[in-house]
Design goal:
2 copies of one chain form a homodimer. With about 240 residues, the first copy, chain A, is mainly α. Chain A contains 7 helices and no strands. The first copy, chain A, is about 80% helix and about 0% strand.
Amino acid sequence: MPTVHIMNAYDQELKFLASRIASMGGLAERMVDESVKALVHHDPALARKVIADDVLLDEGQREIDDKAIVIIARRQPMADDLREIIGAIRISSDLERVGDLGKNIAKRVLSILETPQPVRLSRGLEALAQLALVQLKEVLDCYATSSVERIGTVRDRDDDIDAMYTSLFRELLTYMMEDPRNIAACTHLLFCAKNIERIGDHATNIAETVHYIITGVQMPLDRPKEDKSHRVVLSGE
Amino acid sequence: MPTVHIMNAYDQELKFLASRIASMGGLAERMVDESVKALVHHDPALARKVIADDVLLDEGQREIDDKAIVIIARRQPMADDLREIIGAIRISSDLERVGDLGKNIAKRVLSILETPQPVRLSRGLEALAQLALVQLKEVLDCYATSSVERIGTVRDRDDDIDAMYTSLFRELLTYMMEDPRNIAACTHLLFCAKNIERIGDHATNIAETVHYIITGVQMPLDRPKEDKSHRVVLSGE
């Protein structure tokens, strides 16, 4: 009987990590979504809310880190559980970074709203964010349901985000060249777009971690986490 | 006697992690240094070398991850050693990201070299990179020597990098406004500068991890890892 009791407490500890990851994931998604909504709807109050929320993710990450180490030290888990615990540490670190990126978008939104900006561009950013958020949602869903089947597809779809980002990058450069008054706002939009592209990279990292937790094997290194915007050369045409 | 033998093997495993981190750190520093040298000296071959080197850091990170999990599962370490092992996982992840950032700079250098660019700007980038590299070197030194005394100073000095980055950001925007032909190259330089600023953030992360390894306590959350460039509003003046 005591053994069963201990097992249950241990299971509960593991479940705590998973549910904390789920709540961090939900918050990170909301922050990114709201930061882009703040841009599209010219809503500085919403941007400020996103900036304030970020501390919750920092706390979440630290809580998971501390808890994970206590669980390992106390329970001395075997390989499967160990992968799950180390995986939780990794995923929470990715989610904390996603929150940072959302916060950075929100901060830039406050600057962008002080200058005129082409509406079409914030729409482009919104579409890019939707892609990244679907990606993040699916990968967190794979984590919550321990399903490895869709992981490869999710990871491969990061290419779509990269392609849309590179095209937005080109469009923003063109606007800057057309009218120097667009330069400051478009530069912030460029960085917002880059942040969203990086959120896609973090979703990819999480996909790889989930794959590792479930299968015990690292995914092959063939997926380069890189957009193609570094190739853009326009030299003022 | 067997106990002593086992202890030694275990110590050797821990030492392996530390020495692998040291070699990853050396490589990451070199990649960043060489990527900026490639820019300053117009050296596409050096940029391509940096791009090729990145896979070595990816392999290093995976090796440390795998090894760390094997050590935890086999040795069931107590809290101190556990922090060291989890710390190695975290630091190697930061170093892998530093390598990615160096590779991204190198890729942008290949595009930048195709267009004319103001020399002064690449010098500014070089100075920024030197600050970030000193930061990274010192924090890796703290890790190698387990010395916690300088950690706070190292972390605080990240402010200098942020300030220099923000000033470079402004300067680059001004160049873009002066002459639209500078826009594409300057945008790549902006992202290079941002990458270097992020390398400083990773050095800060590593400082926090080293502090945690040595003291068992997380550093206070009061250090915002943010530059101030998001506040720059120039609207074409």
